[in-house]
Amino acid sequence: MKMTISPDQIVLSGMYALDSIKGFSGQLSKEKELANIVDVSALVGAGAPLFALLVQAVKKSKRLEVVGASDELVDMAKLYGVDQVLTFRT
Questions:
Q1: Opening angle at CA 89, ends 35 and 79, nearest 5
Q2: What is the pLDDT of residue 64?
């Protein structure tokens, strides 16, 4: 799994991996300000820790729009209740 941070957006790609999420969390905590768009269109798979990472990003960006999310990912967000703090654009 790979995370690329640019001023315009954060891109998550590759095969979902819990170990990667832990590293990305540390990386996000070092950022002073983050883009308000996360592109997950090239991400394969997901789990609850992914939503924890996205919520962490919301704290730095004030709002977060997730683009390229599959219907399954949106349904998982609703299940975990994070659809209240994230905006999904498919």
A1: 100
A2: 92
Residue 11, token pair as written in the block: 């891109």
The residues, any chain, with a CB within 8 Å of residue 26's CB and separated by 6 or more, are none
- DSSP E strands in 1-90: the ranges are 2-5, 10-15, 37-44, 64-67, 86-89
Residue 82 DSSP class: G
- Name the pTM for this structure: 0.89
First and final C-alpha spacing in the chain = 21
| pLDDT of the residue at 58 | 87
Give the pLDDT confidence score for residue 68 in this predicted structure: 96
Find the helix packing angle between 48-61 and 71-80, rounded to 10°: 80
